[in-house]
Specification:
Elements: H1 2-21, E1 25-31, H2 37-47, H3 50-53, E2 57-61, H4 68-80, E3 85-89, H5 96-105, E4 110-113, E5 124-127, H6 130-145, E6 149-155, H7 161-175, E7 180-187, H8 192-205, E8 212-215, H9 218-230, E9 239-241, H10 247-254, E10 261-262, H11 265-280, H12 291-294, E11 307-309, E12 313-314, H13 320-325
Length: 328
């Protein structure tokens, strides 16, 4: 009987230990907004992560609605409900710091993804260097113009890290072409509709003077193309560039209307989620996403790195069909 009782006690302990090990963890993803396709791809990639599909992770994706106060309220909710980890893509590089502080004070690790925040408290970050993409896109426009002519710049939301860094890259490229004049430079808040309205106004204000469009994302570049077409002009006579590699932009690249640089939303999202699980499990976790095998120059390194840099991929005639196939 005594042996039986010991065996039962051992079995019960093992079951309890197994239950703890398999306990579902709660992770919240707080992107700045879900209106545009890029962040929709990012959010969908989160849901497709193996740990979410298997039920190991209970994932909640919030919509920040492009509002720093909304994001702060979402952090309060996640802190109150004792989430195990948070993935953060802030709308504002400075305002997001208070949200990170609140989570860290509650003992919740915060993994940055896609956009940055001015805080040293992030546990880790997975994203791409926006200064590089800003330089790359501006250079494609300037190269097509032969470093001569006039351009306009469509910026992202003022105060977001991508807007700040891409503008820095834009200006670096422009400094190499002193004969190029910037006729207009204004935010269109990542919005295709806002960019179309701005471009319509600029075409009227500067008739036959605009030669190139530097759109800090694809949505805005596409909005500029719509305005050009609506004005009865040939969009192929302009040098137009965007960033992200969203589906409509891939089609526009294939049609010869613009250039684009792919920002890998899936890699940023799933990489951040692997890190969030790793820290929620206090290191007792191996990455499940295949993105670490895809990007050999971005090794997992036991989850110990502070920054994981996902490289940019220029969209070309050689790879555009393959990229489009991934959207079907």
């Amino acid at each position: 009987m005594r042996k039986l009782m010991i065996a039962l006690a051992s079995a019960t302990a093992l079951l309890a230990s197994s239950a703890v090990a398999q306990e579902k963890i709660k992770i919240g993803a707080a992107p700045y907004g879900l209106n545009a396709e890029f962040m929709q791809i990012w959010a969908a990639a989160m849901q497709e992560h193996p740990a979410v599909k298997s039920g190991e992770v209970e994932l909640t994706v919030f919509d920040g609605r492009y509002d720093a106060l909304v994001q702060q309220d979402q952090f309060k909710t996640m802190v109150t409900q004792k989430y195990n980890a948070i993935i953060f893509a802030p709308i504002d590089v400075d305002a997001g710091a208070a949200a990170v502080q609140s989570a860290v004070d509650a003992g919740i690790p915060v993994i940055g993804s896609n956009t940055r925040v001015n805080s040293d408290l992030l546990t880790s970050y997975v994203g791409s260097d926006d200064t590089i993409s800003g330089y790359m896109e501006a250079k494609t426009v300037l190269d097509k113009l032969g470093c001569k002519g006039n351009v306009v710049i469509l910026e992202g939301p003022v105060g977001q890290s991508a807007q700040i860094s891409r503008l820095e890259g834009n200006k670096k490229a422009l400094a190499e072409c002193p004969d190029v004049k910037v006729l207009e430079d204004q935010t269109a808040n990542w919005s295709r509709a806002e960019a179309q309205t701005l471009m319509e106004n600029w075409l009227t204000a500067h008739p036959k003077q605009i030669n190139g469009v530097i759109g800090q994302n694809d949505e805005m570049a596409l909005g500029a193309i719509e305005a050009i077409k609506a004005a009865g002009l040939d969009e192929k006579s302009f040098a137009i560039a965007g960033i992200d590699g969203i589906t409509d932009a891939l089609r526009a690249v294939k049609a010869g209307e613009m250039t684009s640089i792919l920002q890998d939303a899936r890699a940023q999202a799933q990489g951040a989620l692997d890190l969030a699980i790793f820290y929620a499990r206090k290191g007792d976790y191996k990455p499940q996403s295949d993105i670490w095998a895809t990007y050999k120059d971005m090794p997992w390194n036991d989850g110990k790195d502070k920054n994981y840099n996902v490289p940019w991929t220029p969209v070309t005639a050689d790879n555009v069909d393959k990229l489009l196939a991934t959207r079907k």
